[in-house]
Amino acid sequence: MTQSMNNVATAGSARNGASLGRSVMALFDVVATWNERRRQRLALEALPDHLLHDIGLSRADAVNEAEKPFWRG
């Protein structure tokens, strides 16, 4: 392999590595978002009725939100 072909192959590998890194980070961000939704929904469901009333929600609203799957926004 000539030096110029080797440089092109190395540059392509670096781009592929960077692309893989971005993909892994994007996946991590999605999983972190899902986990945060799950955590917030469980916390909302655990609030006492008087605090739910303070933020304008009913117990039924809190339960409905908590029952949503983590992937639904």
Structure description:
- Pfam families: YjiS-like.
- The chain has 73 residues and is mainly α.
- The protein has one domain (3-66).
- The chain has helices spanning 3-46, 49-54, 59-66.
- The longest helix has 44 residues, at 3-46.
- The radius of gyration is 23 Å and the shape is rod-shaped.
Number of helical regions:
3
When the domains are counted, the total is: 1
What structural class results from the helix and strand content?
A: mainly alpha
Low-pLDDT segments = none
Strand content: under 5%
Radius of gyration, Cα only, in angstroms? 23 Å
Count of individual beta strands: 0
Helix content: over 70%
N-to-C series of helices and strands:
HHH
- Separation, N- and C-terminal Cα atoms: 51 Å
Largest sheet: none
- Morphology: rod-shaped
Write the layout of secondary structure elements.
Layout: H1 3-46, H2 49-54, H3 59-66
Domain YjiS-like: 28-62
Pfam families: YjiS-like
